[in-house]
Amino acid sequence: MSEWLVLVLAMAAACVVVLVVSLVRTRRAPDDEDPSETPDVIEYMTMMIGVVYAIVLGLAIAGVWEARSGAQDHVQAEAQALHEISERVRVYPPDVRDRIRGDVDAYVGYVVKTEWKTMADHGRVTTKGGRLFEVVRQDVSDYKPRSDFEAQTYQPLVDQVTAADAARNARAGSMDATMPGVVWFGLITGAVVTIGMVFALQIRRTKRELILAGLFSALIAFLLFLIWDFDAPYSRGITASAEPFTALFPHLPK
User: Fold this and answer.
1) Which of 92, 141, 214, 240 could be disulfide-bonded to 96 (CB atoms 3.0-4.6 Å)?
2) E strands along 86-205, which residues?
3) 8 A C-beta contact, residue 252 and residue 246
4) What does the pLDDT look like over 100-110, one tens digit per residue?
């Protein structure tokens, strides 16, 4: 099922639940009930609960967005380091240069076509991807410079391999969910309490109040979906992409 369809269904379900509860409560309310006589303390508590929950939601969204941005930065750093390796080996002999570039292309092509799907489906990098990267490392580190010019290029190339390795490890480590289970428990419980406080204010069955109650519950559902979607940087709808690889290696088949 599409994640956007899940979002629409979740928002619709939240609206329906709130509207149904509102209508049922109104039908069963005593004839002498006066909704205008809501105690001041309940209005104050409702306001404070809404403010606190809004702050919690804001912090949660900021946290998962930062994690998603960090995941994209790891991809950019890895792709940039590999691109630098391909460009800087031009000073090496043709056979060495072509071998290193070919192995870099093989690694990048595998990451884009195969490893990225494994990351999305299983939340991990692949062993083969690690082996292909080790081939690139050995190509660079095992070469013995034959001139001073090549010697000056050797150490920067090794540094770029180290940078690519660090970015790959960071990419592998950023696949886990940002929000722990206890935080999700708090977010969902807070949503139930916040929406439940609408009924503490003795909502009436007027068209305006029902529309606002439905929109409010749909907004809460949307924000929770947004947090859930960002919580897995590589495997859900709005994810970090492999675009840096394809942009820096446009000659590879997509």
Assistant:
1) 92
2) none
3) yes
4) 999 999 999 99
